[in-house]
Design a protein that fits this description.
Length: 484
């Protein structure tokens, strides 16, 4: 039985609901203006240009690339719908109803910022050179003044200076640990400290910049997926070189990661060449040392392998006499003869932990691990070149006893102050950082509850600063003179 027309109309949806379904969307004005990952406006050019995946969802190009690269290749998915995606699925699109911000002016401003940064670096270098020249003039003035005053003070007793180290800053670098090595940038007065990444989207390891002017931690730069084993800085070209267990060597220029050299073996050490600023060395497992040129990093120049020892190369130092190489079981000096390297064993007994070189005194400092009944020790070896044939002589000079145990691979270093020189290394048995005095300097012991894995000495505004790095913290000491 059919119902009257008026009752059929009553059974239909209420007019209010119909109006609600047909009403315009409230978010039409803002939909499609921002990236769902960073919530920032995308543009029509540059790194944050509008792109889409094959599923149809829209993102900024830089954000979706980082998202996909942070996942394993087989598990990459769309951030919105979790459907499978890959880097090749990224497509630049143009949609009529989407608003793309014009970022051409931003790109031009970014280029201007880069140009100003380059000019700033040049001015800072000129300022540093002026400071060095000013310091040299002051020293020359002091020499002339002392020579003029010498007849007046001839009858006075000479003043003897002694040194002590005062703790200036105890800075926490990483709560999760992972710190290992460090190096100093004398241009920007910054320490580069290796650290584990705290960003779960970008796991791995990088460097933390620490300003020695205000003793504050700064920017983190991601470099390697696996731990960093060594860092070294080149002052002539303002380049930082890092070596990691992932088998790659990274070159960082003015704080920006650049060249990546894949060496095919886990790396433990690295060093810039003493004379050729475009060449560097890396050492790794199997006792292998590779020599590279930054202008052609695809292939190594030389491959050096120590005879009879396949232990990892833990330290490399390029000197005016050749390349010093320290492995776990042996130490070598590689001497170049017509671009062919000849190995010469250092007259020291291992096992070893690290090697450091002092250019002023031409001495190598080798840290030896305890073995059997012997204690750990620091061995000093001087390098000399004989006049007739130019042969390099290796002369052991002195040895300092260390701790009875060494469970960690801590590194020793030279510490130099005006008129004083120390050989610094951590002593696990004493839970202290020991500075063994040389050239008349007194030995110093600094309490260290956390083992100092690496030690670095630097000059800052005429002061000597000693940096000691543990797995979590960085301790900065200032050398202070006292008269006796």
């Amino acid at each position: 039985m059919s119902l009257p027309d008026s009752k059929q109309d009553d059974l239909e949806e209420p007019p209010a609901k119909v109006r609600k379904l047909s009403s315009p969307k409230l978010n039409d004005d803002t939909d499609g203006e921002t990236c769902p990952i960073c919530l920032d406006t995308w543009g029509n050019s540059g790194e944050h240009r509008l792109v889409a995946l094959k599923c149809g969802h829209l993102f900024g190009a830089q954000c979706v690339e980082r998202w996909l690269k942070a996942q394993p290749s087989r598990e990459r998915t769309c951030p919105t719908c979790k459907s499978k995606a890959a880097l090749k699925d990224i497509r630049f699109i143009y949609a009529k109803r989407l608003v793309a911000a014009d970022s051409s002016q931003i790109t031009a401003l970014q280029k201007q910022v880069d140009s100003l940064q380059t000019e700033k670096s040049r001015v800072e270098l000129e300022l540093q050179n002026c400071k060095i020249a000013h310091r040299a003039c002051i020293m020359q003035l002091e020499v002339l003044r002392s020579s003029l005053m010498k007849p007046q003070v001839a009858k006075e007793q000479p003043v003897r200076k002694t040194w002590r180290f005062a703790l200036e800053k105890n800075l926490e670098i990483s709560k999760d640990g992972g710190c290992r090595v460090m190096t100093y940038n004398c241009r920007t007065y910054e320490l580069y400290v290796s650290q584990k990444s705290v960003n779960y989207l970008f796991p791995g390891y990088g460097i933390r910049k620490v300003s020695c002017v205000d003793n504050k931690a700064g920017q983190f730069v991601h470099l390697h997926p696996k731990p960093i084993r060594d860092l070294t800085y080149s002052q002539p070209r303002d380049l930082l070189l890092s070596a990691g267990l992932d088998g790659a060597a990274r070159v960082v220029e003015r704080g920006v990661p650049g060249l990546a050299v894949h060496c095919g073996l886990p790396l433990w050490s690295c060093s810039w060449d003493h004379l050729r600023t475009n060449e560097f060395y890396v050492g790794g497992v199997g006792g292998v040392v590779h020599q590279y040129d930054v202008r052609n990093p695809a292939h190594y120049i030389q491959r050096l392998t120590a005879p009879g020892d396949m232990s990892p190369v833990v330290s490399l130092r390029s000197t005016e006499y050749g390349l010093l190489s320290c492995q776990l079981n042996s130490c070598w000096l590689w001497v170049a003869n017509m671009r062919q390297w000849e190995p010469r064993a250092l007259p020291l007994e291992g096992p070893f932990m690290s090697l450091s070189y002092d250019e002023e005194s031409h001495r190598a400092l080798v840290s030896c691990r305890p073995g059997g009944t012997e204690r750990a020790r620091l061995a000093l070896c001087r390098l000399r070149a004989s006049a007739p044939g130019g042969e390099v002589a290796l002369e052991p000079e002195q040895s300092f006893p260390g701790s009875g145990r060494a469970t960690l691979m801590s590194r020793a270093a030279w510490v130099r102050a005006p008129g004083a020189l120390w050989a610094a290394a951590h002593s696990e048995g004493e839970a202290a950082l020991r500075l063994h005095g040389l050239e008349g300097a007194r030995s110093v012991s600094l309490p260290a509850a956390e083992p100092a894995l690496d030690v670095c000495a630097l000059q800052l505004n005429g002061d000597t600063v000693l940096a000691a790095l543990s797995e979590w913290r960085l301790r900065l000491y200032k050398a202070i003179t006292t008269t006796t």
